[in-house]
Design a protein that fits this description.
39 strands, alpha+beta, 672 residues, eight-stranded mixed sheet, Rossmann fold, four-stranded antiparallel sheet
Length: 672
C-alpha cells in the first residue's frame, strides 16, 4: 500500500478548547490593553505526561504529578475505573514506563529538580505489580546494595538500560543493555541481557560484537541488529535456518545513518525498514531478508518529507505506520482501525488524534492522545463496545487553546533558489497581523529533525507576548530529503546562515515583520546562528538572545573536557563542519569569536556551568571579547546546569529574562 499524500495532516484552522478559569493566554485588561503572561504560566510543571494500555487492554498506567510535585505512576482498572498508586516518592520522578506483562510494570526514574552536575544517579530500573505489590529494584541508581530482609544481593550495575522499551508482553523478562567499555564520551562492547523482573536474574543474549541496537521478533528471538565500530555501521540479520548473521548493508554512522534502518520484525520474519533506495526521500518499505526482495512500492512515502515510521503492531499482525512529516500522521493498514480513526477525527476535529490499541486483539479499549499546535496533549479512553468516552487528564489543563497562536509552514526561496521550509507563528491577539515585532528562532543540532506541528511552550510564550515567531528549517535540517540534508554540510556561517537571513527578509517583504524590530535567538547551534546573524546581517537584527552557544569552531575540535567522542571529531566533524587543518581559515572566518568586536547590538548570553556539549569556555571567552566594545551585553550563568536547563525554576528564570530583554529592545521602532 502506497500513500503519496497521507491523510489527516494539519487540522489547524479552528482553535480548540474551552475557556478555563485562569487559563493561559493574552487577555485584555480594563483599559483594553493586552496583559502579557509570565513565563511561569507557560513553563510550569506538566500535569500528565504519559499513559499506556496493558497488553490485554484491561488496565492503564498513567504518569501524573502528585501533590508533592513529583511524577508518580497510577494503574487504572478499566472495568471499575478504580486507580491504584503503584509508585510515588519525594526524591525522584517516575520516568520511562513499560508493561512487562498484563500484571507487571517496569519503569525508570529521573530527578527534574536537580541540575546536571549534581545528578549522582542513573535511571535505575524498577518493577511492580498493577496492584502495587511485589515492588523490586532491579538496577542500581548508585553503586549500592539492595537489601530485602536478611537477603543481600547486588543489583545490576547503574549503567544497565532498558532497551527501546521492548518487553515480550508475557513472562517476567525485559531486555536490557549494559556497556562494558565506556570512556565518558563513547562506548565499546555492549552486552545485551534478559532481566527477570521478579528474580533479578540475567541471561546474556548472544549478539554480534559491537551491537548497539537490537530488534527481536514477537517471540523474543533476536533477528536484526545494528553494529557500530568507529564510523563503520552495519545492519545484520540472523538467518533462522542456519543461525548465521549476515550483513544487509554497511554505512558511515555519522553521515549515512539514514540510508536504511530496521523499524520492526514481522511475524513472517520480514523487516519493516526506512530506506532511500536511490531516492532523495526516505520511505517505509517491506523487505524479505532471506531473499533480499523488497516491496514493489513503499508502504508509506511523501513527496516533500522523509518518512520514518513507528510500526504499530498487535500480537497477530501489523496494524499501521505512524510518522511525522509536517505533522504526525497515522497510516492504518487495518480497515477497521482506519474507520475508527475517521470516527475519532470527526469527534475531535481540531487535533491530531493518536490511537493506541492493546497488544491482544479482543480488547475493547482505545487510548487517544489528542494534540495540536494550539493544544497540549489531552488523554481520552474510548470503549468500542459501549461507544463511550472517558477523559483521563491533560498535559497542561491550564492552557486555553482559544488563546494560543496557530503554527503554519511556509516555503520560501533562498537566494540560490533552494526551497526553505519555515514555520510561522503569529500572535493570536492582534487583529492586524502586519508590521509585528518578530523573533527568528533558530533550532539547534544543526543536523537534526527539528520543529513539527505541536504545542511548543517557547513559541507560544513568545507569541503570547506579542511576537511573531519565525523558525527557518535551514539546509542541513533532517526530514526534507537527502539533498537538502547534504546541502548543509560544511555550511556553518555560510549557506545555512544565509537561509536564516533570507527567511527573515521574506517576512519583511510580506509585511509581517517590522524591519526595525526583529531579534534572532537560539540555543546550541541556534545560539551560534544567532551570534553569526548579528555579525553577518547586522541590518536585519536589532538584538539577539543566544544560550549554550558555540562561539569558536576550532574549539569544538580541540576542547577535551566536552562529551564529544574523539572518533566523531576525527570522522564526523571534518565532513559535516570542516577539517581543522585543511579548513582552518574557513573555521576561523565563520566563528563568532573572530568577529566579536563587530557585535554592537544588545545581546543576552546564557550558559550552564557544567555544560559538556558546549563547555562554558565558549561563553566566557566570547563574553570577554564582546563586553569591551558592547555595553548592552547581558550575561547569565546557571550553576551546575548542562546543555539546557533541567531545573524548571531555571527555565522560568531564563525565559523571564529573555522576554524582558526583548520587550526592552523591541518595544518601539527607533526614532519613532
Amino acid at each position: 500500500m502506497s500513500n503519496q499524500n497521507p491523510p489527516g495532516v494539519l487540522r489547524r484552522r479552528t482553535l480548540l478548547g474551552s475557556a478555563l478559569l485562569g487559563a493561559i493566554g493574552p487577555r485584555a485588561n480594563a483599559q483594553g490593553q493586552i496583559d502579557k503572561p509570565e513565563a511561569s504560566r507557560f513553563f510550569r510543571t506538566q500535569q500528565m505526561t504519559g499513559a499506556m494500555l496493558s497488553p490485554d487492554g484491561r488496565r492503564l498506567v498513567m504518569r501524573t504529578i502528585a501533590s508533592n510535585d513529583r511524577a508518580m505512576l497510577s494503574v487504572l482498572e478499566l472495568a471499575t475505573m478504580a486507580p491504584t498508586v503503584v509508585y510515588k516518592a519525594d526524591g525522584a520522578d517516575a520516568d520511562h514506563m513499560v508493561w512487562v506483562n498484563n500484571q507487571r510494570l517496569a519503569f525508570t526514574l529521573t530527578d527534574r529538580e536537580t541540575p546536571q552536575s549534581k545528578l549522582d544517579s542513573g535511571p535505575g530500573l524498577f518493577a511492580v505489580n498493577h496492584d502495587g505489590s511485589d515492588f523490586r529494584q532491579l538496577v542500581e541508581r548508585q553503586s549500592v546494595f539492595f537489601r530485602n530482609g536478611n537477603d543481600t544481593r547486588r543489583l545490576e550495575p547503574w549503567n544497565t538500560y532498558l532497551v527501546n522499551g521492548n518487553t515480550l508482553r508475557s513472562g517476567d523478562e525485559v531486555l536490557v543493555a549494559r556497556p562494558e567499555a565506556f570512556d565518558g564520551k563513547d562506548y565499546g562492547y555492549v552486552k545485551l541481557l534478559r532481566l527477570n523482573t521478579r528474580t533479578v536474574r540475567t541471561e546474556e543474549v548472544e549478539a554480534p560484537l559491537h551491537s548497539v541496537a537490537w530488534w527481536p521478533d514477537a517471540q523474543g528471538n533476536l533477528r536484526a541488529v545494528m553494529t557500530r565500530d568507529g564510523e563503520k555501521g552495519a545492519l545484520r540479520w540472523k538467518d533462522p535456518a542456519s543461525g548465521q548473521w549476515r550483513v544487509l548493508t554497511e554505512f558511515n554512522v555519522y553521515t549515512d545513518g539514514g540510508e536504511m534502518q530496521v523499524r520492526h520484525v514481522g511475524l513472517d520474519g520480514s523487516l519493516y525498514v526506512t530506506a532511500r533506495r536511490g531516492r532523495d526521500k526516505q520511505a517505509m518499505w517491506l523487505m524479505n531478508p532471506a531473499t533480499g526482495q523488497w516491496s514493489t512500492e513503499p508502504l508509506a512515502q511523501s513527496p516533500r518529507f522523509d518518512v520514518d515510521a513507528h510500526v504499530i503492531a498487535r500480537e497477530d499482525k501489523v496494524l499501521g505506520l505512524r510518522f511525522t512529516i509536517d505533522a504526525e500522521v497515522t497510516l492504518w493498514l487495518d480497515n477497521n482501525l482506519q474507520a475508527l480513526q475517521d470516527q475519532m477525527d470527526k469527534v475531535l476535529p481540531r487535533t491530531t488524534n493518536r490511537l493506541s490499541v492493546p497488544w491482544q486483539r479482543d480488547a475493547p479499549w482505545i487510548l487517544i492522545e489528542a494534540f495540536a499546535d494550539v493544544q497540549p496533549t489531552q488523554y481520552y479512553l474510548f470503549n468500542r463496545d459501549t461507544r463511550k468516552f472517558a477523559r483521563l487528564g491533560a498535559d497542561r489543563p491550564d492552557i486555553d487553546a482559544k488563546q494560543m497562536a496557530s503554527m503554519d509552514m511556509v516555503r520560501i526561496k533562498a537566494r540560490d533558489g533552494l526551497e526553505i521550509p519555515t514555520w510561522l507563528t503569529l500572535p493570536h491577539s492582534p487583529t492586524d497581523k502586519k508590521n509585528l515585532p518578530m523573533v527568528v528562532l533558530v533550532h539547534g543540532g544543526p543536523f537534526v529533525r527539528a520543529s513539527s506541528w505541536h504545542w511548543d511552550a517557547e513559541v507560544q510564550f513568545l507569541a503570547a507576548r506579542g511576537y511573531a515567531v519565525l523558525q527557518p528549517q535551514f539546509r542541513g535540517t533532517k526530514g526534507f530529503g537527502d539533498a537538502f540534508y547534504r546541502a548543509g554540510w560544511r555550511q556553518w556561517g555560510k549557506a545555512m546562515q544565509a537561509d536564516v537571513a533570507d527567511a527573515t527578509r521574506w517576512a519583511i517583504a510580506q509585511g509581517i515583520a517590522d524591519p526595525k524590530r526583529i531579534a534572532i535567538a537560539g540555543g546550541s547551534y541556534g545560539g551560534y546562528s544567532a551570534l553569526m546573524g548579528l555579525v553577518r546581517d547586522a541590518d536585519l537584527f536589532r538584538c539577539g538572545v543566544a544560550w549554550i552557544a558555540v562561539t569558536d569552531l576550532d574549539l569544538m575540535h580541540t576542547v577535551d573536557w566536552d562529551d564529544v567522542s574523539a572518533d566523531y571529531k576525527r570522522q564526523g566533524m571534518p565532513v559535516l563542519l570542516g577539517d581543522r587543518v585543511k579548513d582552518a581559515a574557513d573555521l576561523k572566518a565563520n566563528s563568532p569569536i573572530t568577529h566579536a568586536a563587530l557585535i554592537k547590538q544588545p545581546l543576552l548570553l546564557a550558559y550552564g556551568s557544567a555544560d559538556k556539549r558546549v563547555p562554558i569556555v565558549h561563553g566566557q571567552t566570547f563574553r570577554k571579547a564582546v563586553q569591551t566594545v558592547n555595553p548592552a551585553l547581558e550575561w547569565v550563568e546557571y550553576p551546575d546546569e548542562g546543555h539546557g536547563w533541567r531545573v524548571p525554576a531555571n527555565q522560568i528564570d531564563f525565559w523571564s529574562r529573555s522576554v524582558r530583554f526583548l520587550d526592552r529592545h523591541l518595544a518601539s521602532t527607533p526614532g519613532a
